[in-house]
From TrEMBL:
<dbReference type="GO" id="GO:0005576">
    <property type="term" value="C:extracellular region"/>
</dbReference>
<comment type="similarity">
    <text>Belongs to the glycosyl hydrolase 28 family.</text>
</comment>
<keyword id="KW-0677">Repeat</keyword>
<dbReference type="Pfam" id="PF00295">
    <property type="entry name" value="Glyco_hydro_28"/>
</dbReference>
<dbReference type="GO" id="GO:0045490">
    <property type="term" value="P:pectin catabolic process"/>
</dbReference>
<dbReference type="InterPro" id="IPR050434">
    <property type="entry name" value="Glycosyl_hydrlase_28"/>
</dbReference>
<keyword id="KW-0961">Cell wall biogenesis/degradation</keyword>
<keyword id="KW-0732">Signal</keyword>
<keyword id="KW-1015">Disulfide bond</keyword>
<dbReference type="InterPro" id="IPR006626">
    <property type="entry name" value="PbH1"/>
</dbReference>
<dbReference type="InterPro" id="IPR000743">
    <property type="entry name" value="Glyco_hydro_28"/>
</dbReference>
<keyword id="KW-0378">Hydrolase</keyword>
<dbReference type="GO" id="GO:0071555">
    <property type="term" value="P:cell wall organization"/>
</dbReference>
<dbReference type="GO" id="GO:0004650">
    <property type="term" value="F:polygalacturonase activity"/>
</dbReference>
<keyword id="KW-0326">Glycosidase</keyword>
<feature type="signal peptide">
    <location>
        <begin position="1"/>
        <end position="19"/>
    </location>
</feature>
<dbReference type="InterPro" id="IPR012334">
    <property type="entry name" value="Pectin_lyas_fold"/>
</dbReference>
Length: 353
């Protein structure tokens, strides 16, 4: 039945939004060239070694995922999905899921060695939103957020719980680099690495999120072309049975700056290793030696970080060489491992240990 492209009321006629359904990569490429303002992605299978690529989607487009998105198996870097563009709305429809079936790649070594594992999502968006996505069993890092500006990511579920039994590693939730005005909110992350890792950027907010298992929340600066993290807000989050609560880690002998980090209203529950960890001697292989001061940590606020660390862990550990203008309020209980703190700004008392 032919339908008019206009919907008419008593006083006026307006153009009706058009939509197209895509079931494979060929239909997606055709949809990019078309004029439809909504793309419904339905039960799509992505062949091995190929990418579900939303680059060059027209500005103003809404992308809705409906059904199950799956991928063929290949050892490669990926990404499995690219979300790239301006003024896009990306949504998860009822019952949809991105199933990475990560167990096919997992071997306990993550991206460090062993099988070559693909990243799940590469995100390079501006003036856009991502809402309501459900992701299961990422082969490795889930969201690589790079060169983004003014985006929001809301109500995302990352469920990599199977990795606890089957060798998941480096299954980061959100990795953020060279991005500005980013909000990640109201999401739940089960994984085996950082729930959030901010490598660089400005005006980044991570709020009302729940991190379960994995390594907790991190601002990790150094080792990249851009080594500045400014105006970072981490608030209203829960870290449950994570290895760490919140960390700021700067690279040994690195150069850059961490300035204006606010960590507030964070609840820790049964953290195993450290509730709050701030170090200036970070290496991928683990902290080493004395901290270096090439990446100062300035204007840090810790406010109402509370909860417990298990007995073998430590509540707070600070080991830095260049720190200025810190404010601190925390109430972390339970950790019995005592580690000395070093480099705390003059006049500030922190309940280390």
């Amino acid at each position: 039945m032919n339908m008019s492209p206009y919907i008419c009321g008593i006083l006026m006629c307006v153009a009706a939004a058009s939509a197209v359904d895509v079931w494979n990569l060929q239909q997606l490429e055709a949809a990019k060239r078309g004029n439809d303002l909504t793309i419904n992605v339905r039960d799509i299978f992505v062949p091995a070694g190929q990418t579900l690529n939303f680059e060059f989607v027209k500005p103003g487009t809404t992308i809705v995922f409906r059904g199950r998105v799956t991928f063929g198996y290949k050892e490669w870097r990926g990404p499995l999905i690219i979300l790239k563009g301006r003024n896009l709305k990306i949504k998860g429809g009822a019952g949809h899921i991105f199933d990475g079936e990560g167990r096919r790649w997992w071997d306990g070594t993550g991206t460090n060695s062993g099988k070559i594992k693909p990243y799940m999502f590469y995100v390079q968006l501006a003036d856009s939103s991502v809402r309501g996505l459900t992701i299961k069993n990422s082969p490795a890092h889930t969201f690589a957020i790079n060169d983004c500006n003014h985006i929001s990511i809301n109500n995302v579920m990352i469920d990599n719980r199977d990795g606890n039994r089957f060798g998941g590693h480096n299954t980061d939730g959100f990795d953020v680099a060279k991005s500005h005005r980013v909000i990640i909110a109201n999401s739940t992350i089960y994984n085996q690495d950082d729930c959030l890792a901010i490598n660089s950027g400005t005006d980044i907010t991570f709020q009302r999120n729940k991190c379960i298992g994995g390594h907790g929340i991190a601002v990790a600066v150094g080792g990249y072309q851009v080594n500045e993290a400014r105006n970072i807000v981490i608030r209203g989050c829960r870290c449950i049975q994570t290895k760490y609560g919140v960390r700021i880690k700067t690279l040994l002998n690195g150069r850059g700056i961490v300035k204006g980090v606010n960590i507030e209203n964070i609840l820790l529950k049964d953290v195993t290793d450290a509730g709050l960890l701030i170090i200036g001697n970070y290496l991928n292989s683990g902290p080493k030696g004395e901290p270096t001061g090439g990446i100062p940590i300035e204007d840090l606020t810790v406010n109402n970080v509370r909860g417990n660390v298990l007995a073998k862990g430590t509540n707070i550990n600070v080991l830095v060489a260049n720190a200025r203008n810190w404010h601190w309020s925390s109430n972390i209980q339970g950790g019995q491992r005592r580690l000395p703190c070093k480099g705390i700004p003059n006049g500030l008392r922190i309940p280390c240990g």
